[in-house]
Each structure stands twice: as structure tokens, then as C-alpha cells.
Amino acid sequence: MSKLTVKLGPLELENPILTASGTFGYGKEFAEFINLDRLGGIVTKSLTPNPRPGNPPHRVVEVTGAMLNSIGLANVGVDLFIQDKMPFLQTLECKVIVNIAGESLDEYLIVLTKLETVNNGIDAYEINLSCPNVKEGGRTFGKDPRQVHRITSALRELTNKPLIIKLTPEVSDIGELGLAAQEGGADIISAINTFIGMAINTKKRKAVLGTITGGFSGPALKPLALAKVYALSQVVSIPIIGIGGIFTVTDVVEFLLAGASAVQIGTANYIEPKISEKLVDDLHQYCEENKLESITELIGTL
Ligand SMILES: Cc1cc2nc3c(=O)[nH]c(=O)nc-3n(C[C@H](O)[C@H](O)[C@H](O)COP(=O)(O)O)c2cc1C
Q1: In the annotation, is 131 catalytic?
Q2: What is the model's pLDDT at position 264?
């Protein structure tokens, strides 16, 4: 067993570095930059039952220390994913986590049921309950612990694969959402998705994004994300994947100390496509320099 191996309930990773949904396409887009098999795993873009073109422009804008996006879950839809994207993903040795989104409970169930027909190549599901740019009846249902419980337990009945519930930070008590997911049968929690932010063009006196507000991600998010991961670690007993503004090995270590058992790299992929593989190397070096037998020695030891 390598020094970097981590076990998240039923999901064992060669190392704790994963890529974050929506920032790494369907994996193949990054194959020319890095050796995907060196990562702990990749998380694919959110899938919905039907293809989605996404939101009108502008969909991305850089702001101080961060970016805003309103992609709106643009994706190929689950059928084309199975037909066109799965064959490549099935060739990978790293873990493949398929992210699912929907606008209603039924949509999540449809996508997961179709993915369950795929014979090999999917190691876990991550359920995006938190997209800030898609709402059911004008409401982000990932903010309601009862809905989180309802969706988690309905999906749990349909699969034996590891079920990861991805949470929104846009609540006053993220611990409540984490407990709802845990009680609904989730194996793992990932935290966090983006916060909601906006940018204004003062010349045009208009919001920059076509949707006015959008998801705020990148380095400026890290202290907020760390606090959410720490808060979750105080109340849930299932493993946590930390996400938010991770760019360096120090960032990774901070999340592990705060209680995460693995991390996802998001916005950093846009700035440095090789970053995830570099972080695996940097983490090995960190273990050597700090004389760690195993990276797990750090987890939740704050
Ligand atoms: C352009 C963009 C698209 C995203 N699309 C998705 C998505 O489809 N599904 C999802 O669960 N999260 C999505 N996210 C959220 C990221 O997975 C991640 O939770 C968030 O960006 C925080 O991490 P970061 O600061 O490292 O980017 C997206 C983020 C960005 C920047």
C-alpha cells in the first residue's frame, strides 16, 4: 500500500487527489496534458437525463482571487455519455466517479438507473444537489435537509456503488445537510460546491453574467470551504471530500487537517491543466519531508 492510499468507506483511492466536476470535462480532454492514471480519480461533469446547452453568455468572468460561472449544467446527457464517453473512461485505471444532477427527484433517478446498466468503469456516483444555476420551482432543493434525505435514500435503493452527496455551502448550518445525507444512506460527502456571487460592469451598468449571479470558485473560496469541511467533520461520521480553491500542496494538507479524507481540484485546472498530477508528486514529497508513514496520519487531526 502506498503512503498516499486513502480509504473513504467503500471507496479506496491510490491517492487523495481527485478532479472536481465541471472543471475536467469527461476526462479525455485532459489526457494529453497529464497521465490520468496517476490521479486518485476523476469526477466527470454533471449529467442530466437530456442534453443541456447551458445558460446564455457571458458564462464565465474572472474576479479578484476567484471566478464566477453560470454554465448551467451544460452536458451531453446520460445516453450520449454512455455511448460516447464511457468507452474512454473504461480504459482508465484511476477511479471514475460520475456526477449526476437533475431538476427533480425523478431526473436523478432516471440518470442513475441508466448508469447502473453500464457494466464496468464507474467506481462511484457523486450527486450534485447544489448547482446554484438550476432551480426546481425557483428553489435550490439542496438547501433543505428533508429533500437531501429524500433524494439520498431514493438513490440508495437503486445502487450498491459508493454514493457521494455533494453539498452546497449556501446554508447557515451545513452540518444539518451532512447529517441528512448520512442518514439517507450516503457513503461519503463532498463539500463544497460554489457560493453565489456576482460582478457588475459599471460602464454598461449591467451584471456581467447572463444570469446576473453565478457560482464563485477559486482561491478566494478556500477559507470558506475549509470552515465548511471542518464544521461537517464535527458532526458526520462518514468520510468527507474537501473542495474549494485548492491550488497547492499546502492547500491539500489544510483540507486533510480540517477533516477531509480526499480533495477535488476545480478552478486550478483552468489555470494549470497539469496541476492535479503535480499535486500527487508534491504530496509524495510532503510525506517524505515530514516523515509520514501514511497521508492518513493527517486526516482530521487539527
Ligand atoms: C466552470 C465550472 C463548472 C462547474 N460545473 C459543475 C458541475 O457540472 N457539477 C458540479 O457538481 N460542480 C460543478 N462545479 C463546481 C466545482 O466542482 C467545485 O465544487 C467548485 O468550483 C469549488 O472548487 P474550486 O474552487 O476548486 O473550483 C463547477 C465549477 C466551475 C468553476
Answers
A1: yes
A2: 98
Q: Which residues are near ligand 1 (CB < 6 Å)?
A: 20-23, 45-46, 69, 71, 73, 99, 128, 166, 193-194, 215, 217-218, 221, 243-246, 265-267
- What would the grid cell of residue 112 be? 442513475
- The alpha carbon of 297 and the centre of ligand 1 are apart by a number of angstroms equal to 28
What number is the average pLDDT over the span 260-272? 98
What confidence score (pLDDT) does residue 292 get? Answer: 96
* Catalytic residue from among 98, 100, 131, 238: 131
Distance in Å, CA 290 to ligand 1 centroid: 31
Q: How far is CA 178 from CA 20, 167, 190, 262, 287, in A?
A: 19, 8, 9, 16, 30
Protein residue with its CA nearest to atom 7 in ligand 1 = 22
Nearest CA to ligand 1 atom 31: 267
pTM over 0.85: yes
Indicate if the alpha-carbon torsion angle 51, 53, 55, 61 is positive or negative: positive
Query: Which string of DSSP letters, residue by residue, matches 50-112?
Result: S-B--PPSP-EEEETTEEEE-----B--HHHIIIIIHHHHTT-SSEEEEEE--SSHHHHHHHH
pLDDT band at 135 (very low <50, low <70, confident <90, very high): low
